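Weekly puzzle thread! Below is a chain. First person to post its structure in token form gets bragging rights.
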Amino acid sequence: MTDELSPASASQGRWDQGLTRARLLKAAGVTAGGLTLFGPGTAGAAMRRVMRPSAGPLAAYTMAVSEPLVVEAITSFVDQMVVTAKQPNAGEKVITAQSNLKVPLQHEQVASFIEKPVNAILFFLITAAGWEADAKNATSKGIAAFNHSASAVTGMTQNCGLDQYGAGYSLGTVAAQWMHANQGGTGEWALLAITNDPQLTLRGKGALAAMKQFAPKAKLVGTTFAQQETQGAAAASNFLQANPNLSMILSAGDDPAFGAYTSATGAGKTSSKDFFIGSCDGTPEALTKIGQGGIYQATSDFLFPFSATQLERDAEKFFRKQPIQPTRITSPITVTAKNLKSVQTLSKDPLAPNVQYVYKKFMKYSNYKLKTNEPFANAFK
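Winning reply:
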């Protein structure tokens, strides 16, 4: 079964077949990457010279962030971008706009960014289709277009993706271990899936595959879509009412899992030996809940503070007219109570000299330019 301190199996549709658990663990020692509350953190001058391109302040530059909704993962990501932008020899400004799932409004907000004009735009998108013209409009005016959504968009300066299947598979592996230890491998479970994006769908598929492989006698009582906390709460309530013996809910995202947690604890599910909630994202709130020792017991962490830091570094390269590669992907680590403290220690300061190995070991670049909705795996064959 998958080691809790390592990314998902390289044999399960991974984007980098050479990035094995053994290599990652050897590089990481006894720690593992993750996400926690962010501090400003400042590396020494020598390390900053390695981490950043050429010296010089960037106070005249602006990075605009286009957010489709308020979720903890995006909020935390932007918080870390702001921290990184305030580091020595940087100083660029980060501004945001949130459209509350109104796609036409998000397009209008992006158009406003381009008209200002800003120097770079970071896109967080619910679906990738229909954004090619916005990317072209931005880049034609010399504005960098960064996409950190589940799926790629044609024409972006850089598409940043995640090993979605690996996150779900690793979560499902940990969940199967719990199912054997506490339910004899035969308990009932439900899945909160995110199906409005082909890449996000892979999280649920990964979890299903791992549960089928490692806990084949466990009974899946249902799968439903949930991407926000309120949707997760409603779905979990329905599952619990229809299945009084339900002992596990796996979620493709942290936010719907928060809702499931509220519904489950409200229904009297409070023992970590009787009920299991696990998710994907690795937000600070998820790690806090894991630390409480209750039924919220795992999250596949996408190393968002490191990814946010790296995106700012690439933006700074662009501002300095240095080349950046068009595709980047990050692998996750599944966090449980066993490795929580090491994860929190590791990610407290993604700028610290002693954690710089994370960027090389858990992130990979490609010169391949992805098209809209093209699998990120195509860039790493």
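Puzzle host: Confirmed. Bonus trivia for everyone else. The radius of gyration is 20 Å.
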